[in-house]
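Our working data are protein records whose layout never changes between entries. Getting from the letters to the tokens is the skill we practise here. To make this concrete, we reproduce a full record directly below:
***
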Amino acid sequence: MFITTKLWCTFFRPELVQPSLEKSLKKLQLDYVDLYIMHYPVPMKPGDNDFPVDEHGKSLLDTVDFCATWEALEKCKDAGLVKSIGVSNFNHRQLERILNKPGLKYKPVCNQVECHLYLNQSKLLNYCKSKDIVLVAYGALGTQRYKEWVDQNSPVLLHDPVLCDVAKKNNRSPALIALRYLLQRGVVPLAQSFKENEMKENLQVFEFQLSPEDMKTLDGLNKNFRYLAAEFLTDHPEYPFSEEY
């Protein structure tokens, strides 16, 4: 088992990082986790509420420099509480800031971002590869479409006719094709499921290969479409999705 947990935005102040990790370890009943990642590059006001808002319902954001938060993650690694440290939802400019930080001890091993056929992240993927950072894909099948996060009128990725045609040609499900597409590009896809049959099917992703023609066809589905835009963070100068990649 490879166990990952995340540092939420309300714990970005350096003095809160290790206590937050220790709280997670206590819940998990573990001495360490394999990977600990910053959830977003945007800090929020600390407190008991995961999504703090003012009287007008606007997010209460903080001014912590995520490079200072990163240094606190490095200390967690040195303390043996985590094997590797990484980030999530960072754009290339924000990754560059960490990589060029004076006194950097450990660079991020991964950047976990929304990535799927409609948002294939080719430029960010190429950048991460050039820096030896693994791109990890969440929403690999077009997200779970939870009502509180995703516009229910947005397109259903697994119903895409081009994807379904490629699936039929390869005698596989659209979900397997969507996962294999990411895998062949050097992306680590996360496929969330609570159903045993789907979990078993997902493991078949290692049993076949897509042809160069199929890969090119699937490349053509990219729309730079984001299901999860994290709109609650848009007012912060470090909101990551204003950049192209």
